[in-house]
Amino acid sequence: MFRWCLLILCVSAQSPPSQQPVSANISSSTIQQQIYDVIVVGAGLTGLTAARNIQQSRPGLSVLVLEARGQVGGRVRYSTMQTRNGVEFLDTGAQFISPTDVELLALIQQLNVRTTQQLTCGNNTVFQQTRRRKRQLSLQQQWSTTLFSDLINTPELINNLTNTSISTMSQQMDAADSDSVNRLMQTFFDAPGEQVSQVQLALTCSSQNATAVEILRRFGHGQSLLAQGGMNEVVRRLADGLLIEYSQRVVSVNDAAYPAVVQTSAGRRFTARQVIVAVPIPTLENIDLVPTPEAPFQQLIQNYGPTGHAYYFTMSFQRATWRLNGRSGKVIYTSTSGPLVWLTTFDTTFASSCDNSTSASSSLWGIAHFSYDVPFETRKKLYIQAIMYSLRFADFSPLDCVDVNFATDDLAKGTIPTLRLNIPIDSLKYLNDFHTLYQNVHIATADISSNSLGTMNGAVHSGTAVSNYVLQMLSAADAQSNGVLRDTPVESTTPYIYSTSSHYPPSMFAAAAVVVPEQQNQTRIQNSPVMMAPNSQNSSAATTQFQYETSSQYPTTVETPTTTTMKHFSFGNLDNTTTADEPQAVLYDSPPQQAQPTLNYSTTFAYSTSSVMPPVVPIETTTLRHFSNGNLNETSTAQSPPAVQRDDPSILINQQQNGYAYTTSTHYPIQLSSNRNSGINSRATPSPEVVQQLQQVSENASNSTSLQLASSLTQLVQTLLTTLRLQ
Questions:
Q1: pLDDT score for 301
Q2: DSSP secondary-structure letter at 294?
Q3: Is there a single domain that holds both residue 317 and residue 201?
Q4: Which among 522, 551, 307, 263 has a CA at the least distance from the CA of 414?
Q5: pLDDT in tens, 380-428
Q6: Cys-Cys with 230: which of 91, 157, 254, 480 at CB 3.0–4.6 Å?
Q7: pLDDT of residue 656
């Protein structure tokens, strides 16, 4: 179903344009239940650039774009109009491309959209400059050659600029310079100079690397470029292949929860791992941001916005008649009577030369100011009269005319925002491409771009910067899920504490810690206990006393239990004394077996060679005194045979102070103290038969079980004793 929806969108983009774009046919329940990797709020140039970059970089990620209007583009506004070629989309918003807009031009080239230089076919007398005052010109040149980051981070450079208006500044210039700055405020910002801080001009010149006159020439006054089909063709191609939900006005974004929650005015809720809010700065007042942004950022929202009320209009013509009369199409009209008090127009016809320009749909784009509100039909009539009067045309009849007022649009609140007087300098630090609200929600727009502030190139720059950062965040989070930063439980059949991360070098985790913020690490990295399989059947006494961790890099959550008070034969502390606080002694790892016969040993020590082998009938050795039985010091009786002091009669055993005789192996020499006399003839030598049997036992010892070895040695000792008695 989704593929058919994309096919319908592609076909509709190539077919004659309709008034409302076709929205993706997506089930509401499906969208609300899915957790997206990225949600982009706003389908303007910034949001579309970010979504496209993320989708192309990692096609497997789920990206959703939420747009409040019925079309994409944001401040790249367009409308269907009647032209000489039929019904077409024509731009009514931003459309001029500066030749220095490197990132925007690269994007347009990727989308296979042609560009051409704006034509000036006719007289152009707007910028016949006179001599300038060197002090003011050098100041603009200084701003244009200063790095944007240096300007906003150096208070001494901008301290005196925030409390001075551009209107006051222009009064100190000559007529030509003052006219250039005022025209920049009218056509570029749509803002009266009395309400705009001088720091706005400084930041604009710095981000554009140009003076006011150079900026004007690059945007509509001779040096600008135009896209074939208009900028609406660019944004519509940019949106092709993206998952976009139209008419979804976002009213709340919650970054305090994970995943982040986005809620619309219709009550729909969407969740995503990362959210990009790509809307104009002034419109952030319409969105409830959680957590509340810090005070300096709120001050930026309150003191950074458009202040003008201009109408932007587009007229289509059968042909560019103004060119036939030697005019460029640029008109500046002023009137003191009103209601139309100021108007300017630009030739926006896409053509490679003035000669063949008549083959394309001809159009004029303009800006107009009214002293009071009038209906559209009145405005249209005033547009035509002003242009006819300026161009001296007796008959000036456009095929179609539309206009738009961004200031009355609650989703735009104007065109390019401007910094008001006395704005706090601390707020300017947020003009850094994008701003992260808390952790997973990021605000990105051309209004805070450090490159080409407020323009379409700034929108592409900001969208690219925030999308690259989001991709890094997602890669870091995915790396945790894949086991690089997060350990997985390890199963084992032995009571051993495993560490899964000890196989990786510590540098891997140190590098990953730089990318992932501390809050994210605390939220998503969890220690999983090691799953230990019980030995044989069950060993509850051992497994319930320990807290296992999967990685040695995390601190233990509980103190290591003390086990020295536990009675167990493996600890060597098994004796007959117990206290009320001590746990019951554990004699075996295996389940209790049939009771063994009481042995006449000096201690209550009992051996169990294996917890998995069946019990074996014990060998009768209670009357035999031997150092391995611990009864060597017992007095002899008439019925008991003499004690065996050593394995080799020719070697003496060293007597310890406690009377206990140790021997580590029958292969090493052993010394026997002289004060032990068991009545055995020490000069007697064993028979060859006994020696051969002893060698055979020694050779088979490595392949024999403990029980088999004990049985062989017992038989050998009995044979040896018999031989010694006979001698």
A1: 94
A2: P
A3: yes
A4: 307
A5: 999 999 988 888 776 678 999 999 999 999 999 989 999 999 999 999 9
A6: 91
A7: 44
pTM: 0.64
Same domain, yes or no, for 194 and 122? yes
Across the strands, what pairs with 342? Answer: 334, 369
Question: Using CA atoms, how far apart are residues 395 and 56, in angstroms rounded to an integer?
Answer: 51
310: left (phi over 0), alpha (psi -120 to 50) or beta: beta
Q: How many CB atoms lie within 10 A of CB 98?
A: 23
Which amino acid, 213? V
Q: Are 204 and 457 in contact (CB under 8 A)?
A: no
Can you state the angle between helices 456-481 and 102-110, rounded to 10 degrees?
Answer: 70
Q: What CATH code is carried by the domain that includes residue 286?
A: 3.50.50.60
Q: Among candidates 660, 630, 626, 661, which has minimal Cα distance to 644?
A: 626
CA 32 vs CA 6, 115, 153: distances in Å = 20, 41, 43
What are the helix (H) ranges across 209-266? 212-218, 231-239
Whether residue 474 is predicted with pLDDT greater than 90 in this model: the reply is: yes
Are 328 and 120 in contact, with CB atoms under 8 Å apart? yes
Q: Does one domain contain both 129 and 222?
A: yes
Contacts 24+ apart (CB under 8 A), 668-672: 670/646, 672/645, 672/646
- Total structural domains in the chain? 2
Q: What is the pLDDT of residue 519?
A: 41
Which one-letter amino acid corresponds to residue 483? G
pLDDT of residue 5: 43
Same domain, 434 and 291: yes
DSSP 34: -
Helix (H, G, I), strand (E, B) or coil at 700: helix
The secondary structure of 293-359 as a DSSP string is PPHHHHHHHHTEE-----EEEEEEESS-HHHHTTB-S-EEEE-SS-SEEEEEEEE----SSSSSGGG
Query: Which one of 78-87, 458-467, 512-521, 663-672 scores highest in mean pLDDT?
Result: 458-467
Radius of gyration of the chain (CA): 45
| Rounded-to-integer distance, Cα 121 and Cα 134, Å | 33
Q: Alpha-carbon distance 495 to 534, whole Å?
A: 8
DSSP character string of 511-525: HHHHHS-HHHHHHH-
Higher pLDDT, 631 or 219: 219
Amino acid (one-letter) located at 691: V
284 vs 388, more confident? 284
Q: What is the DSSP string of 648-681?
A: -TTS-BPPPTTSPPP-S-TTS---B-TT---S--
Give the contacts of 323 (CB within 8 A, at least 6 positions apart): 121, 122, 329, 347, 354, 357
Same structural domain, 185 and 239: no
Q: CATH code at 315?
A: 3.90.660.10
Q: How far apart are alpha carbons 15 and 527 in whole angstroms? A: 56
The SS3 call for residue 108 is helix
Contact, 328 vs 293, CB < 8 A? Answer: no
Which residue range is the domain that position 289 belongs to?
Answer: 35-77+228-305+425-473
User: Do strands 115-117 and 269-277 pair parallel, antiparallel, or not at all (unpaired)?
Assistant: unpaired
Boundary-marking domain end, from 363, 378, 408: 408
Q: How far apart are the first and last CA of the chain?
A: 103
Q: What is the mean pLDDT of the chain?
A: 76
What is d(CA 255, CA 292) in angstroms, rounded to the nearest whole number?
10
Q: For residue 442, what is the enclosing H or E element?
A: strand 441-444
SS3 for 289? strand
Half-sphere exposure of 373 (CA within 13 A, CB side): 6
Cα–Cα dist 251/177, whole Å: 44
- Residue 87: what pLDDT? 94
Q: Is the dihedral of CA 579, 581, 586, 592 positive or negative?
A: positive
The pLDDT value recorded for residue 635 is 53
